[in-house]
Amino acid sequence: MDINQVRYFLNLAETLNFTEAARRSRVSQPSLTRAIQRLEEELGSPLIYRDGKHSRLTALGRDIQAEFMRIELALRNVREHSESTVLGRHRVLDIAVATTIGPAKFTAFLADVLGQLPSVKINMHQLLAGEGADEVLSGKYHACILPGMPRPNPKLNVVPLFRERFLLACAKDHPLAGNDVVTTGALASYPYVDRLACEFHTQITEHLMDNDAVMQPRFSAEREDWVQQMVAEGLAICIMPEHSAVVQGIVTRPVQGMSLERGLVFVTVSGSGTPLEIRKIAQLAARHDWS
């Protein structure tokens, strides 16, 4: 097995078309076909069902695709690390964060990372709806920060960071801001804005209903900044994680009887294929004082 076979098979797995895969690989179709056949002979089983326009990967082919993607990522990491060292470049790391996670608890940590790893440049990205740990496994991001534990996977390294409660959020001059603890019944007296991106949306709604607080929001939004601007201007209240506020003028208060909380985690791919810098960041995250 050689590196070219890895590249050829990944192109074939993506296109399911030998002609297109050969074009992407910049080889003739017969050369690519022979390389795939040699790979199948070495592994002892077909990797693709050859059925014209209906070609598809076998079960083994899908497994091999996942492993080859890790190999390709590791090779890319080696090249980037070598170039960064030889040419004195910064190593660019792409880290994604869930939309509901605010930056307040991370600024000191990121400053520590950049101070201890001077050769690193970090690009922060926003996870799209439905994205998570799979985007780390695919190589789209080097790491991600999630609002909860991903599905168990031996290929993932998961570092717990800190836990945060869900609290009432309101404007600093809102009538409820004068309370140390707010009763659930008091919430129903004020306009409520619905955070559609909230991972605990169902649990929050059930808690409010169980305590006879039927909230009927007339404004809902997936974007946290829109929700928080409404709250900061005193036009509505909402339930949000205690460290997620990014708009000035918002205060948070505990809600009586509400014990919902979430645990944030830092997720990377496990193993030697992970960039050394990402492994160091994960170690720093595990040792950081998040309090």
Automatic annotation (TrEMBL):
HTH lysR-type domain sequence ranges: 1-58
Which InterPro entries does the record match to this protein?
LysR_HTH_N, LysR_subst-bd, WH-like_DNA-bd_sf, WH_DNA-bd_sf
Keyword Transcription in annotation: yes
One cellular component (GO) term of this entry? protein-DNA complex
Q: Which UniProt keywords apply?
A: DNA-binding, Transcription, Transcription regulation
Instruction: Report the SUPFAM superfamilies cross-referenced here.
Output: Periplasmic binding protein-like II, Winged helix' DNA-binding domain
GO terms for molecular function, please? DNA binding; DNA-binding transcription factor activity
Q: State the family it belongs to.
A: Belongs to the LysR transcriptional regulatory family.
Instruction: Kindly provide the name given to this protein in its UniProt entry.
Output: LysR family transcriptional regulator
Species whose genome carries this gene: Phyllobacterium brassicacearum
